[in-house]
Amino acid sequence: MEPQSQNLKTAPFLTLGRFHISEDYGFLLPNPLMPLLNCQFLTGYREWRLARLVLSFITMGYVWQDGETQPKEILPRNLALPFVEVSRKLGLPPILVHSDLVLANWATRNPGGPLEIRNLDTIVSFPGGESLRGFILVTVLVEKAAVPGIKALVQAVNAILQPSPDSLLQALQQLRVSIQDITGALGQMHALPVGLVYEGVSKEPLSYSGGSAAQSTILHAFDEFLGIRHSKQSAEFLHRMRDYMPPSHRAFVEEIRVAPSVRAHVLSSGSGQLLTAYNQCVESLAALRTHHLALVTKYLITAASKAKARGTSPLPRPPRALEARGTGGTAVVSFLKSVRDQTLAARLHPSG
């Protein structure tokens, strides 16, 4: 019996606190609400972007939890304050934008594998299954396909400053290939299901929308580089969308805008090779916009019209904005046709 006696002497007294049991609330967690999130522990640009990604998704989930017809009108303090603080730090409006939904919202399943849709996943997502996930990841691939084109802009501007006609020609050719690759990447959107089938409710898929492509820096930079001028209404909308870009990306577009004009340089050079290469870039960009227009018609306009016809469905309809407007708030078809047509109008013709 002596060993048991020794064990009793060394055993700690039994207390509820050791087991996270409250003297006042028992197994209940006392005052479950967490303290206000503190942004001072975030270090570096990447952590601020990731924090904004999570907060923006939580915010949108909270605001739209009851559907389009009953959005919340007040964002709770414990979410509003950190979200606004992070957004101000990054120079972005406190709302989910393209830089959250796409640019900061991807990861590779196998880090050593190729950057293709089968090896990609989103970090955060909304309900919507493979349709929404695929929408985001195809857009990630579009952004990746633009990388050589972005580099080509820098090479071309420097080639004008040096000057180096051969380097400029190479840059224009690389830009054309990159734009064509973007169109190819965007083509993967056709492989996605057209919405989501709700078993027991509808035999046809119901389609909902994603983020606004107009907030992507890619086409803004390409337009400024090629000197494409859009109609007053379209230009005003596109410039408003730049407020939804990270400030450093917005600054890049502005840097391209104030750089020496490649369009004027090509015209004054008298080079048939440069003129052809420039026009091929413009035509490829117009083809990309035609392809985008077809996608929007398929996934937004047509799908929304079908959903409207199913007015007896107990599910909420896709947002009314889809019936005539894109996700950025523009009259989508007329807008996309206008920017496509203005792109084609930028083609140069040999002088004389």
From TrEMBL:
Heme b binds at H292. It comes from Muntiacus reevesi. Belongs to the indoleamine 2,3-dioxygenase family. Its EC number is 1.13.11.-. Catalyzes the first and rate limiting step of the catabolism of tryptophan along the kynurenine pathway. Involved in immune regulation. GO terms for cellular component: cytoplasm. One of its GO terms (molecular function) is indoleamine 2,3-dioxygenase activity. It catalyses: L-tryptophan + O2 = N-formyl-L-kynurenine. This is Indoleamine 2,3-dioxygenase 2. One of its GO terms (biological process) is L-tryptophan catabolic process to kynurenine. It is an enzyme of class 1 (oxidoreductase). It comes from the Eukaryota. Keywords: Dioxygenase, Heme, Immunity, Iron, Metal-binding, Oxidoreductase, Tryptophan catabolism. PANTHER family: INDOLEAMINE 2,3-DIOXYGENASE, INDOLEAMINE 2,3-DIOXYGENASE 2.
